[in-house]
């Protein structure tokens, strides 16, 4: 008997891209969930149940086993370092993690770095042998160097439009980012057939890097 897969799906920009990929793979899931306030979407016809989560919470649901699998950006996976299996690089929501600053930035005595990713930033600057104070923000990170909260930021860049519009420059790229399919360790064993079948279906339609 096939078992229902509980899937932690990130609300926001990844949802649509992930839903398009599922549909390309022949799994008919809704393209949009924004028009409803429902947080759990039952999809018995495809053997799934979507749990609509804040992107950064996806690995938490999966680690605790309330979701069997989930979709999450590599940025969040690295920052959160949760005990989950990473099964597939889905090749969607491609961007990169970078160090960003004002064009006239020079190293000073007291360096401050603002970011949504304090673990990623601390580790990077430690490896570089740079002593910095890391300030955690939750959004609009580009504001920090513009208004003097920090000298530099560590944040995501996709098109570079946000940087251009705010007069900032990309100084260093830390790593590339795409969304990943993750699984709970126990679910991976208990629902192996269902998870494996999903992986096989998705694998065939993963976009090539451009
Ligand atoms: N500009 C971007 N281009 C492509 N992918 C991005 C971009 N920004 C973020 N991502 C990817 O999408 C994921 C979710 O981003 P999104 O902006 O939807 O959520 P969030 O800002 O973390 O959450 P929320 O706004 O709901 O609190 C990120 O973790 C990253 O992997
Ligand atoms: O290079 P671009 O194409 O301009 O994309 C990069 C921007 O997208 C993300 O912000 P988001 O829209 O998630 O806003 P937030 O950081 O305020 O949540 C990221 O934090 C950058 O600000």
UniProtKB/TrEMBL annotation:
Its UniProt entry gives the catalysed reaction(s) as: 1-(5-phospho-beta-D-ribosyl)-ATP + diphosphate = 5-phospho-alpha-D-ribose 1-diphosphate + ATP
What single Pfam family name could you report for this chain, choosing any that match?
HisG
Q: Which GO terms describe its biological process?
A: L-histidine biosynthetic process
Q: Which CDD domains match?
A: PBP2_HisGs (cd13595)
Q: Which GO terms describe its cellular component?
A: cytoplasm
Subcellular location(s): the record lists: Cytoplasm
The primary site where this protein sits is cytoplasm
Q: Taking every annotated instance into account, which residue ranges of this chain make up the domain ATP phosphoribosyltransferase catalytic?
A: 54-203
**Which terms are listed as keywords in the entry?**
Amino-acid biosynthesis, ATP-binding, Cytoplasm, Glycosyltransferase, Histidine biosynthesis, Nucleotide-binding, Transferase
Q: Which domain of life is it from?
A: Bacteria
What are the recorded GO MF terms, alphabetically?
ATP binding; ATP phosphoribosyltransferase activity
Q: In which pathway does it act?
A: Amino-acid biosynthesis; L-histidine biosynthesis; L-histidine from 5-phospho-alpha-D-ribose 1-diphosphate: step 1/9
Coiled-coil ranges (or none): none
Instruction: Give the matching InterPro entries.
Output: ATP_PRibTrfase_cat, ATP_PRibTrfase_HisG, ATP_PRibTrfase_HisG_short
Q: Which PANTHER family match?
A: ATP PHOSPHORIBOSYLTRANSFERASE, ATP PHOSPHORIBOSYLTRANSFERASE ATP-PRTASE
Q: Provide the domain comment.
A: Lacks the C-terminal regulatory region which is replaced by HisZ.
Similarity field: Belongs to the ATP phosphoribosyltransferase family. Short subfamily.
Give the quaternary structure: Heteromultimer composed of HisG and HisZ subunits.
Q: What's this protein's function?
A: Catalyzes the condensation of ATP and 5-phosphoribose 1-diphosphate to form N'-(5'-phosphoribosyl)-ATP (PR-ATP). Has a crucial role in the pathway because the rate of histidine biosynthesis seems to be controlled primarily by regulation of HisG enzymatic activity.
Q: What is the protein name stated in its UniProt record?
A: ATP phosphoribosyltransferase
Q: Which gene encodes it?
A: hisG
């Amino acid at each position: 008997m096939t078992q229902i897969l509980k899937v932690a799906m990130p609300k926001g920009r990844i949802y649509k891209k992930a839903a398009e990929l599922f549909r390309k793979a022949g799994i008919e899931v809704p393209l949009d969930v924004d028009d409803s306030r429902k947080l759990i979407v039952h999809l018995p016809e495809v053997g799934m149940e979507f749990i609509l989560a804040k992107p950064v919470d996806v690995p938490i649901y999966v680690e605790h086993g309330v979701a069997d699998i989930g979709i999450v950006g590599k940025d969040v996976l690295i920052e959160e370092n949760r005990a989950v299996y990473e099964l597939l690089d889905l090749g969607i929501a491609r961007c990169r993690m970078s160090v960003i600053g004002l064009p006239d930035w020079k190293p000073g005595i007291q360096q401050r770095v603002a970011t949504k990713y304090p673990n990623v930033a601390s580790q990077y600057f430690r490896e570089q042998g740079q002593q910095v104070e890391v300030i955690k923000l939750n959004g609009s990170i580009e504001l920090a160097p513009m208004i003097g909260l920090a000298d530099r930021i560590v944040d995501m860049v996709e098109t570079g439009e946000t940087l251009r519009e705010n007069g900032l420059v990309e100084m260093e790229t830390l790593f590339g980012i795409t969304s990943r399919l993750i699984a709970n360790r126990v679910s991976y064993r208990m629902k192996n057939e269902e998870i494996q079948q999903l992986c096989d279906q998705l694998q065939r339609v993963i976009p090539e890097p451009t």
